[in-house]
């Protein structure tokens, strides 16, 4: 008798959980707000609608024309209240993790930047970038490369363009400052500020 009651209770629990899961699946999903994107040279300035300390970035993504797989992705965000930049570089898998990446232009070579993590989409450098490095990139060009080292020890250069980088960066910084200063929307039930 106790086994039958235990099985009945377990079955009822499974039905309740399944019903709740189906109800959630049937509910319409909220459409995420899309970022504002504008092209500047070979870069894109992207600003996100969510409240964030770094609401905007500049980015460039390069794909293999044959396979359409991403070869290199670069994103540089600006944090207005800290006057700092955050860089994210994504490269393919099968790289030598200890070797990191190096950005090289006609007049600038970065220090080695270490990988933070890898997943099935690639390996990622995510770190603060010195403002002097950003200025050096803005004064370089028009071509640059990210040097990576494969597991076997061979170095590969992943080429990218600096065309429009300085203008895209300045536009992104201006947008980030404006969005960071804009007041947050009042929470539900909170009184809205009086209009003059």
H/E element string?
HEEEEEEEEHEEH
Poorly predicted parts:
1-29, 184-196
Identify the strand order in the major beta sheet: 1-2-3-4-5-8-7
Number of strands: 10
Rg, Å, rounded: 24 Å
Mean pLDDT: 82
Structure commentary:
This protein has 196 residues and is an alpha+beta fold. It has a domain at 36-93 and 114-140 and 165-181: Immunoglobulin-like (Sandwich), CATH 2.60.40. The chain contains three helices and ten strands. The strands form two sheets. It has a seven-stranded antiparallel sheet with strand order 1-2-3-4-5-8-7. A three-stranded antiparallel sheet has the order 6-9-10, with no helix packed on it. Strand 3 (56-63) and strand 4 form a beta hairpin. Helix 2 (131-139) crosses helix 3. Mean pLDDT is 82; it is low at 1-29 and 184-196.
TL;DR of this structure?
The chain has 196 residues and is of the alpha+beta class. The protein is built from three helices and ten strands; from the N terminus they run H-E-E-E-E-E-E-E-E-H-E-E-H.
Spell out the blueprint of helices and strands:
Elements: H1 2-26, E1 36-40, E2 43-47, E3 56-63, E4 70-79, E5 84-91, E6 102-105, E7 117-119, E8 122-129, H2 131-139, E9 143-149, E10 155-161, H3 165-181
Antiparallel strand pairs: 1-2, 2-3, 3-4, 4-5, 5-8, 6-9, 7-8, 9-10
Helix pairs in contact: 2-3
What descriptors fit this protein?
globular, 196 residues, three-stranded antiparallel β-sheet, Immunoglobulin-like, alpha+beta, 3 helices
């Amino acid at each position: 008798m106790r086994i039958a009651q235990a099985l009945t209770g377990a079955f009822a629990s499974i039905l309740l959980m399944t019903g709740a899961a189906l109800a959630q699946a049937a509910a319409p999903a909220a459409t995420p707000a899309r970022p504002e994107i504008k092209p500047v040279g070979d870069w894109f300035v992207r600003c996100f609608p969510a409240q964030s300390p770094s609401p905007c970035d500049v980015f460039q993504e390069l794909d293999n024309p044959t396979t359409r797989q991403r070869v290199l992705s670069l994103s540089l965000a600006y944090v207005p209240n800290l006057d700092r930049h955050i860089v994210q570089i994504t490269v393919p898998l099968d790289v030598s993790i200890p070797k990191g990446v190096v950005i090289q232009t006609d007049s600038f070579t970065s220090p080695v930047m270490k990988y933070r993590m890898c997943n099935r989409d690639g390996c990622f450098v995510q770190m603060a970038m010195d403002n002097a490095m950003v200025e050096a990139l803005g004064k370089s060009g028009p071509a640059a490369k990210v040097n990576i080292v494969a597991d076997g020890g061979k170095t590969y250069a992943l080429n990218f363009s600096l065309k429009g980088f300085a203008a895209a960066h300045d536009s992104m910084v201006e947008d980030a400052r404006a969005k960071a200063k804009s007041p947050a929307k009042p929470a539900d039930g909170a009184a809205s500020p009086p209009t003059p």
